[in-house]
Amino acid sequence: MLHLLGVLSEQISVFNIFRYITFRTGGALITSALIVFMFGPAIINSLRLRQGRGQPIRADGPQTHFKKAGTPTMGGLMLMTGILGSSLLWANLSSIYVWVVLGVSFCFGVVGFYDDYLKVTRQSDRGFSGRARLVAEFAVAAIAAWVIMTVGQEPFSSSLTFPFFKSLLVDLGWFFIPFACFVIVGAGNAVNLTDGLDGLAIVPIMIAASSFGVIAYVSGNAIFAEYLQIHFVPGTGELAVILGAVIGAGLGFLWFNAPPAAIFMGDTGSLAMGGLIGAISVATKHEIVLAIVGGLFVVEALSVFIQVGWFKMTGNRVFLMAPIHHHFEKKGWTESQIVIRFWIVAVILALIGLSTLKLR
After folding, report:
1. CA 167 to CA 231: how far, in whole Å?
2. Which of 49, 54, 74, 353 is the most buried (most CB within 10 A)?
């Protein structure tokens, strides 16, 4: 469609507007939201009928969660339908970065879907082997990292950049691939761990997508990149269109996921969304900024590592329950208090992350 509109723009000047990334980002946002709003109810009803008892509830989880029994999962299918449909319509498909990011998101979504499928069919909160899942995720991330490194210009494509420093680059060479894999897989699983309360993960995902939409746009624009003294990465501006689709799909999904949730995101959605944002951070050379913008996801993941590690060493727990949002539930915070306060934290971290674009 975009190619056809480009041809038409040569004949009819009004079609020139489709050449602008900002316009197409807005179009992708609206389109993905409409797709989720239109097909969301049908997807929810279908999943409810097919899943029966819905997503299994952790036996050792907070008691308040047992009232959610029977809620269908795999809501990530709604998100992916909106994002893929909208991106294929509005993004410039000649950009290799578009295909890499969508490929990572789709493959991570497939891994999550299989995990959700096993949980539902077995009526257990355990999916397939965690080791096998990580192997699959790292394989996908390695291919994406190799492509990103190959299409870029050496040595910049294999270098690590640092916020606040314009000229500081560390060439990782081939070690860039395992580093990028860690970022992509870590982002996917961090978002997955955050997805534990109604609406808790989807809004920070949209906040991170908004932040990286700005980052992708200015990183892919030579004029803005020079003005802000950030590294110019040709072709990454198109990723803003995908991130617009993420925001739109997120808005549609939140309509159905707001408490009490009609559907859960599941691993299908959380892995797909985390992998997508992680891949974009690698493509735009803002991996460290991701740790700031997605700081909420980082804290959630760290709380699990700390809890498990400390328990194995001492037999004691640091938190009442991990991930950390469950800790606050155990302390008496209501679900809405936790969700809204975590949203506020996500906004603050996003603003700090965006400030790195100018503070050089």
Report:
1. 9
2. 74
For 173-201, how does the pLDDT look when each residue is reduced to its tens digit (9 = 90+)?
A: 899 999 999 999 999 999 999 998 889 99
Nearest to 292 by CA among 146, 175, 164, 103: 164
The Cα–Cα gap between 257 and 248 comes to 14
Concatenating the DSSP letter of every residue in 92-125 gives: -TT-HHHHHHHHHHHHHHHHHHHHHHHHHHHTSS
Q: Is the pTM of this model over 0.90?
A: yes
User: What single-letter amino acid sits at 74?
Assistant: M
- CA distance linking residue 20 with residue 24, whole number of Å: 6
Closest CA to 46 of 74, 27, 21, 68: 74
161 SS3 class: strand
Give CA–CA dist 298/136, Å, rounded: 21
Using DSSP, state whether 119 is helix, strand or coil. helix
For residue 151, how far is the Cα from the chain centroid?
23
Cα 16 from chain centre: 31
Structure tokens belonging to residue 68: 């959610």
